[in-house]
Amino acid sequence: DRYFSVRNIKRGARFVRQLREKIEEQTAPTIKQCRKDIDELWKRNKQTIVEEKTETQASHEEAQTAVKTSNPIPGKAGVKKTEDEKVAEVREILSPIVKSEEELNAWLETIKSNPCTIVDNEGTHWKGNTFLDIIPQGGNTIIEYNRSHDFFRFIYELLADLDEAREKKDHDGVAEIAHRLKVAIDLLFMAYSKAEGALDPEHEQPVEETLEFLRANWGAHLRNFVRSYLSTKN
Prior knowledge:
The chain is mostly helical. It folds into two domains: 97 residues, no CATH class; 86 residues. Helices cover 61% and strands 8% of the residues. The protein has a three-stranded mixed β-sheet. A hairpin with a 2-residue loop joins strand 2 and strand 3. Helix 1 packs across helix 5. The two termini are 45 Å apart. The mean pLDDT is 83.
């Protein structure tokens, strides 16, 4: 009773200031983490719904076919990889989304028959702010999208909003979404320009390390630019 200032009068219990501060101090980290977990779960569930609605993986086939039809010159990166090494790479990349050997074999055939193959992935192997990874395998290249990156979340939500606006025949809504997609394209290349501008032309290092540094910076700038843009819309 002393800590809650309870007295024999008709008045509610009141916290002693020190006790309130102690309780807030002890519970703050847990509350913060719970809110973060709830927010992350909400984003993941929403993104799953968006991806199912927009048929994300199927939507890459047209672009992949266009690249294949252009008959590009095979790249040199990854030409020394053995078939076993290539299969191991693909298995690791697809582990979060492939459920059987049949699925894996189908993916292997797709990758072998296309100069570029896009994989929408989430997984747990992403480094920092990386929003995509490029895995060269000689004449074939795998482009892995990090679906959990702010940029892709933004894009997928816009695609879902676009479907909804079209169903409602909301022409103003479609126009606004088209504008936002244009902004997204601008942010994508502006982020790349900042990442490339951070490269030191006097610093010599292996190409692989340079590309990794470039992609990491690209993803970091892109995340910040997207968040900055969205903050002006909320």
